[in-house]
Amino acid sequence: MKTSMPPSIVPTPGRRKPRGRLPIAGVAGAAVVGFWMLMAVFGPWLAPDDVGNMNGDAVFAPISAQYPLGADFLGRDMLSRILQGAPYTVGVALAAVLVASIGGTALAMFAAARGGWFDTVVSRLVDIQLSIPTKLLALIMIAAFGSSVPVLVLTIGIGYMPGAFRIARSLAVNVQAMEYVQAARARGESLVYITLQEMLPNMLRPVLADFGLRFLFIVLLLSGLSFLGLGVQPPDADWGSLVRENIIGLSEGSPAVIVPAIAIATLTIGVNMAIDGFAGRKRRGG
User: Fold this and answer.
1) Residue 49 lies in a domain
2) Quick check: 227 and 217 in contact, CB under 8 A?
3) How many structural domains comprise the chain?
4) What is the chain's alpha carbon radius of gyration, rounded to the nearest angstrom?
5) What range(s) does the ABC transmembrane type-1 domain occupy (predicted)?
6) How far is CA 278 from the centre of its chain?
7) pTM of the predicted model, to two decimals?
8) CA 38 → CA 33, 211, 221, 258, distances in Å?
9) pLDDT tens digits, residue range 227-271?
């Protein structure tokens, strides 16, 4: 007797498992982040005016054809100031998060793979550093060595490294117990091979998500330090510095105060939207 399969389980030629689509919010967030990344690279060359050009008659000038984003407290074009400040806000934050994430993740993988006393000592040292607030560490380092871009990158990178270490170690401890890692150990593979070829590819997604969140935290910390006058120093300026130096124009509703704050907000919101979008794609796509 001829039997037929239910329509729901009849195999369809060429049918593939549907993949999760990136939500519109995630696409928008990634576009905003990509835009500011491009401005961090090409912004200084695209600036329509030299940041040193001052016009005493245009102090806190409103938005106009000559000043598309207004003018600051010295009559300088704010559009040019924003574009010139993008490398210091985005670039310094990106360099610091690379130090934190790469350093913390590498140390965590080697500690988890090595195990024993090495893992114990490193974990306890990280716990000690975690007890020191990142802002307090930054203030101490800046007071000791002064405020410069290398000091900011290293200080903030080292300050956020323990958090990256803890996240990566929790992942690495689970991964290194898997059968394929044990098989690599049985084959006599080196520690470097095991960590880079067997462990890292299987913990990359959570590490990248943590990378994005840590970048967001560092942008806000840098902006806060610059607002206090402890970040990027004149004549250079990041967006936090632009808010601080134009704060006296707040009572006049000057765009020189609002525009850099909007730039910071769009970058941080864009990072959040991009992270949420990619996380949602992973859940829907399996």
Assistant:
1) no
2) no
3) 1
4) 24
5) 86-275
6) 15
7) 0.81
8) 9, 19, 22, 22
9) 888 888 888 889 999 999 999 888 887 899 999 999 999 999 999
| CA atoms 118, 134, 272, 256: torsion sign | negative
Amino acid, single-letter form, for residue 34: G
Beta carbons within 8 Å of 156's beta carbon, 6+ residues apart = 96, 99, 100, 134, 138, 218, 221, 222
CA pair distance 96, 170, nearest whole angstrom: 22
Q: Domain residues for 172?
A: 86-285
* Domain-located, residue 2: no
Reported residue count of the chain is 286
Single out the residue of 43, 48, 54, 45 nearest to residue 68, CA to CA: 48
CATH number at residue 281: 1.10.3720.10
Residue 183: how many CA atoms within 13 Å on its side-chain side?
Answer: 5
Task: Give the pLDDT band (50/70/90) at residue 203.
Answer: confident
Cα distances from 57 to residues 61, 76, 80, 266, in angstroms, run 8, 10, 18, 30
Non-local CB neighbours of 126 within 8 Å, separated by 6+ positions: 162, 165, 166
Residue 65 has φ and ψ, to the nearest 5°, of: -65, -35
The residues pairing with 77 across neighbouring beta strands, listed in sequence order, are 71
In whole angstroms, give the CA distance from residue 94 to residue 212: 10
Sign, Cα dihedral of 71, 75, 80, 82: negative
With vertex at residue 189, the alpha carbon angle to CA 186 and CA 191, rounded to the nearest 5 degrees, is 115
d(CA 181, CA 179): 5
Contact 223, 187 (CB under 8 A): no
